[in-house]
Amino acid sequence: MTYEINEAIPILKKLLSKEKLNIFVGSGISIDSGIPNWDGMIDSFLKMASEIKFSEDKDKEDVNKLFNLANQRKGNQRFNPIEIATVLRGKLDSCDEIHLDTTLAFNTYENWLSETFHSKKYNSKHKIITATNYPFILTSNYDPLLENAAFDQGYTTFGARQSFDYKDETEILKAINNEVSSIFHVHGKSSKLEIKDLIFTKEDYNKIILKRYPGFSFALRILFSRYSTLFVGYGASDPHLEEVLEELSEYFPNKNGDNGLPHSFLVTLRDKNDLILEKYKERVGVNIILIDSYEQYEKLLEPLKNSNPRKIYEKRSKSKINRR
Q: Is the CB of residue 300 less than 8 Å from the CB of residue 8?
């Protein structure tokens, strides 16, 4: 189904009041903080790769050759930034210097991570999201802005200790089982992001994460089977969103428009929506919430926070125990 904001808010409020709504945060939420969206990150990565100084002539030659070929493709209108970024990531990962903290190559990569993700300040949307009583916050973003916003608002345990990435399989499953509100970085954190772990495509996600960390994949199945999910900060065809939804549809086929599982909600721009998109998202059990501009995110998120604010305690289960 497709909803206007005023139609969606009561539905989402009801789910929140039952502690049955998670939020999945995409790069669009961090743009106001100066962090690039997905396309921008690809461009930024390519620029960083072009500036790496290798001491080994062979590595220098190989990287320069790739960039020369990329520039030739630009002239022939065959340039594919994802393709060249994927090839470069593999080449850079094969260079010993990129992994040695005494080299210029390593420092160039680390400085890129810091300047792109660590040096930014969270914005009002990060504050609203972390101040809302979502059982779990998931994000495909590498940046720590959600944690920083949570910590500065007083959710010290939630912000500092209950933040995990896909490598923390056991901790994530414990948090879900014990109902401890947490932030899950489904693509990893910039604070421990090796170059080989950068996610550019759905195939990367499958190869780097799902196949190597089956416990994390299992955790996602639990979350999507128990909770509805509100997707914010994603383009309608964002590959980071698509990979999660496709994975979900493989786990839980949505036959005849309904598989009996919790529904998800995707916030998208009105001018990006049409019948084809609606039918495509319906296939994977996703409802659409229309906004006219990205500034309207807060119009949707603020009422949810006001109706269900986060309390400063460690476990959501405490509130349940008090009601029994």
A: yes
